[in-house]
Amino acid sequence: MSMHNKREAFERGLIAAYPKVISKFVPSRDFKLIEHYKDGSFTFSSAAFALYSNGYNVRGKTDFAKWGLLYRDSKAIFSIGYFRKEGDAPDDNGYMFIVSPKGEGAYAAAAQFAADVMQNPQIKIKGIYIRPVMPDGIRALEQYGFSQVTDANGAWIDGASKEDDTYNHRILNLAEIFQSPEASSPLRQRVLLSNAEIINNKNMRHAVNNFENFISLNNLRASLSRMSVGDLPAANNIVSIHFAFLEAKGKRVGSTPEDYRGMLHPEIIQLPSVVACMGYIEKLPVAVLLAEEIGHGVAGLYASMSIRNEKYILEGLGLADGKFSQRIQGYFLPKFVKLLFDAGIRIIDWGGAEIPALDFGKKHFGAALPAEIPEWMFFARLPYRKDIIGGG
Fold first, then answer.
1. What gap in Å lies between CA 29 and CA 100, rounded to an integer?
2. Which of 140, 255, 279, 367 has its C-alpha lying 20 to 30 A from 302's C-alpha?
3. How far apart are CA 364 and CA 93, in angstroms?
4. What is the pLDDT of residues 18-57, one digit of tens each?
């Protein structure tokens, strides 16, 4: 059986075995339910579920539940995905992912459900991951036989044991980035984005100024506009080019451009909690940015990608002999987060990273570490430790 069919068999099997608590996740249908449980967590949103439980990745492709499954009982809720590891044979069984348990007794509900799935011979999986898990959840899950993921235990990828949680989430405080001109010396700050705001982060200012010089020298115009359904093919193309660039630089670990297909989709970009934009140089689309409000005044930044292929950009603009600035992302990111700032967002969770270079890019723009560090928890299917789990 192909991986494609194995994930669909897994999904249909879960719904058949647990019809009262398992259903397909459909973002437009389930929007109000997701809104009800939001608490500021990066991994709990419609965009996050479309990303982390997506059915587009070649290691977990499905036509049945494109945005994963949803577990919901009377008190708890979480997303469910299914993937095999890089390097596993295409016909291997995959792993079940439980994403962002929320609600009363959510960790216990996730663990008890996992224990029952482990015992079900009709559900073909090699193990179960739960992500992310906060410190209080770690202790609770360890009582059910789960253990923390490390390089030596349950690592999802060699060199990035917890994929994009290997290096922790970075937090942008927009109130520290944008400040009125009266609050800072005009000799030290350059007015940007609007006459009423300036950027305080020097690295962000430098990126904007560098790219503006490129635009000015070549008599070009850059713009940021809200993404429409008609923009989605161009948006997904930008993601593919972005990942090809990372691959060439040795910086792509784990994630694939297909992971973003379910998020860059009408079901997500048309939700009222989502802001998605395209960055253009003249009429050439060069950047994709997408965020979702995940709590009062808090947003998760799920996509901030740009084309940094010099040949592609210059030829697309008819500037084969021009000088190029790779500060595209550094130019459009401040403009995008300023839109969020104007809409009342004050804190942005920029997510985590697989490798130091990607983490450094966020730190470079002033994103700090949060107070609590989440973990991944793992339980291998064999051997089954019924004495610890206690059945289910």
1. 19
2. 140
3. 40
4. 999 999 999 999 999 999 999 999 999 999 999 999 999 9
